[in-house]
Amino acid sequence: MASLKASLVAVSFIVLVLAGINLYLGYSGNDLLAQHYMTDGEWTDSSCGGCHMGVYEEVAESSHVQRDIAQWEPLTNYNVDVQGETQWVKEYGRYHPGGGELEEYGVDIDCMSCHEQYGLYDAEKRAMAFESGNFSAANDAAMEDAIPVVQQDPIHVATYTLDVVTPLPMLVAFHDAVNAAPAKTSCIDSCHAKDVPTTAVMWASEDYEEYDVHAEVNCVECHTAKEHIIAGSEIPESETEDNQISSGQEESVHGESVTMKSCEDADCHEGISHGPIADAHLEFLECQSCHIPALPGGELPGTTPLKSFNWSSGERVDSYRMEDFAPQLAWSDDVQESEVKVPDSKNDSDVKLAPFNVVTGSWWDAGQDPEVINNPNTSASKGDPIPTPEVKAADSNGDGTVTSEEMQAYDGDSDGTPDYPNAVLRQVDLHYKLGHNIAGSETGMAEPLMCDDCHGVSASETLQQVHFEERPDCLTCHEVQPVIDWAALGYDSDPAETNPPTNFSAKTIDITIPGTKPPEVEREPAF
């Protein structure tokens, strides 16, 4: 018995000595073991692939990574063919998770941009590396402050030390503390703060919970993910054989469908009723239409919401919404069919009314697309945007303003023939769909919309003429832009108009929540 005890003591002593040596060697002296701990924030097959087989390939094929950097959009108005891929990476690489088309620039998929859990991922340092052209160092720069903290974390150090007595690394003990599922702050800080100018979302604000009833909900609870395909509120138009798209669905590399969670989902607001009349509206009206009644203007965390942007001189000139404002309702089928974000029409298939922030964008087009020539300000066609360097070069008198005459006479190749004889300046009301800043009875900038916010505004003959015979600026009469414009939505008049007019301000909307405790009734004692 004594010899057994002595043997156990000896074994324990040896284990402790080995553990001490293991700890002393640390992450630089024991690289073979250290590779299992992902403290450098980089994927390696040896450290990650053993458990996450095939995941790297999934991520590499995801829509976040497989972004076409040559895709044009009005807000950036960047022409890769003319201005170059390298310059695009400098200016916009910060919003790309790496991999895909950035691999040739030495930028691998940056897993930690989504999965770092200490709140120390520095997206600004990554952005600065891109801007300076030091592309291959961008991902490391973002983790420069996080890596020492991760390596010195007590849980991390303890499991690393005890690993010597286990057949496999004790990864489970600390994995989620270091590399768990994306947190809301990761989505915002690493990338989606860029949505503030077009959607006025307040998610980067310290008091976001005052603006959105869903402030405590994590992004992936609604934007469901499968095989690293993340569902969005709008999806790109698919290239399927029959070109049929299920609303809100995307497909993963293995054909798995991913759908944005709806308000009526069993885990959310299933069974809630607003009464038969209001509930009937849900056949053609999205919940957000009433529950995003107002948006904030002025300087917000991230930037200031845009009212318009203008590329007519070759440099973007912006105007901003400095006061709080109301979204506009328009038709949408949840499918992003073009880079030019114009709404659908009432007669399109599977459309519902949804809230949008409308930003007026201006840019020059070559005037070669018949749709653009006939309807330059309302066509959804991308057309043929003129690259901004050529717009600048067309300013023949150098006054900083490019006129139609100058643009149509521009001869950049000096062959004696104008390059853009049919050039047209487009001015398009771009509709950016809203899904955040959701108001409730006690949260939000304003109460959710009621019946009279949409109906009854044109119930009299005089107002009917004002609204539909001519289209003056609504702000001529209204201090705040009305949330709904029946003529723009394809109606001849308010569809709820009655004769005599109905007083919609007297209408109320009652809410019934299934399973709630009935109100207690106070009664007088029997005796």
UniProtKB/TrEMBL annotation:
Annotated TM spans: 7-27
Region (Disordered): 233-258, 376-400
InterPro entries in the record: EF_Hand_1_Ca_BS, Methanoheme_cyt, Multihaem_cyt_sf, Multiheme_Cytochr_ET
Keywords for the protein's UniProt record, in alphabetical order: Membrane, Signal, Transmembrane, Transmembrane helix
Key word Signal present: yes
UniProt cross-references to NCBIfam families, sorted A to Z: methano7heme
Protein name: Methanogenesis multiheme c-type cytochrome
